[in-house]
Design a protein that fits this description.
By secondary structure, the protein is an alpha+beta fold. It contains two helices and ten strands. The chain has two domains: 2-35; 44-163, no CATH class. The strands form two sheets. Strands 1, 7, 8, 9 and 10 form a five-stranded mixed beta sheet that branches. Strands 2-3-4-5-6 form a five-stranded antiparallel beta sheet, with no helix packed on it. This is Lipoprotein.
Length: 165
């Protein structure tokens, strides 16, 4: 009986050795798993950086909705709307979502320069599509986004929403 048990243990050890995964297999699995994670990063074109020439003031700003934000059925994106951001009594940025056409294009104007950016984003490595629902805003003196909203979808269904306030 004892020899039978030893034989099973030896056989089990040999099978584990033969069919066990190597460390390279594990690192490939870890890499694949990390690629499937949601990408929470925001590229500089995705957000508005509100700066102030008045260094003594608080980092506060006001937001005026000039044209209400509008979404339509069958479209993942905000299709119409315009927002302006005011700091120290001056307009520092505007975001225009367009005229009602279902596309993923918006424009932001900062310091008189106009930039076009996509409301959606998906890195090759991500299984999720990112839709910017409200513009992302950063202010001087803060390393974090202080306002905005992003929706993550997979196969057309919302799986997560991040609201920055």
């Amino acid at each position: 009986m004892q020899n039978h048990l030893k034989l099973h243990l030896i056989l089990f050890s040999v099978l584990v050795f033969i069919f066990g995964c190597s460390s390279s297999d594990l690192s490939e699995k870890e890499e694949k798993l990390s690629e499937e994670n949601i990408d929470y990063s925001a590229a500089e074109v995705d957000y508005i950086n509100i700066r102030s020439s008045n260094t003594g003031s608080k980092n506060t700003y006001t937001k005026n909705i000039l044209i209400p934000l509008e979404k339509i059925d069958g479209c993942d994106y905000v299709v119409k709307g315009k927002i302006e951001y005011i700091k120290d009594g001056a307009v520092v940025a505007t975001v225009d979502f367009g005229d009602g056409e279902c596309d993923d294009i918006a424009t932001k104007t900062v310091d008189g320069k106009k930039y076009t950016f996509n409301l959606r984003g998906k890195k090759k490595s991500s299984r999720y599509k990112k839709n910017i629902l409200k513009p992302l805003v950063k202010i001087d003196g803060c390393d974090y986004i202080v306002e905005g909203k992003i929706e993550y979808t997979k196969n057309g269904a919302v799986v997560a929403t991040v609201d920055f306030g």
